[in-house]
Amino acid sequence: MSSFLSSLHIYPIKSCAGIDLAQSGIGHAGLDGDRRWMLVDAAGGFMTQREWPAMALVRPELDAQTLRVRAPGMPVLEVLAGRDAAPPTAVRVWNDTTAGADEGDAAARWFSDFLGAECRLLRVHPRAERIASLDRVRAWTARHGELAPGLGERHVFGFADGFPLLIIGQSSLDDLNLRLGRGGHEPVGMARFRPNIVVAGLEPFDEDHVALLRVGEVALPLVKPCARCAIPNIDPATARRSDQPGRTLISYRGTTDGVLFGQNGLVLAPPGAVLRVGDPVEVEWAF
Q: Going from the N-terminus, what domains does the chain have, and what CATH number goes with each?
């Protein structure tokens, strides 16, 4: 069975709801518009659904000029996406320090009111410099060969956890839902796992054994398994927590590196590259 892109997704605000796309521009930083904004708390720490599950109910809309944000019981917030950036503010995403631009007091009040805690909205500053893990890139290169000079150094990206892309095979979710059903649990949607790219036509967890995906002129090296936190246990429609699907996943996907589901990827793409749902995918295996 041939493989193809079955869905594309961006998450303009880190840890808030995603946007499903029929097509997207793609470059070294990932899909256009992905994780370009982030919330920080009063101490300057980045905020996620791990501590603030109501972030799942924050639904952004994005065009070239405006970020619009909706949430239950709140007026629509509009932020000019193309306005001049504020002076850079140093912010940390896990072990990385990068630069953010504060989006102002009105946006800060909107999010603080909805979440019930003081916070501010930042976007990636034009001078931000953050690259993917060079250790992972070098390990990939040592195993599979050099794909392009300076592969890791070229991947300046936004507020994603560690890499520009997260890629999951549709069959991996289907397999999980079969197991959930056998245990008497409801199936879950792919939105729980917040991928950027979903690929159909693979066997369950085939992505664990893929070195590279090619979509036309776009090359996607898969460089690191994704160890899952508790966010997949939060229902994106209600923001309620449970112990599933995490408890089922750990029973067969638990490793010394965590509970693995999906692969983090890099991007090599020519200027103006576009991915479209339905595009055929060529798989280069790791063995």
A: 3-285 (2.40.33.20)
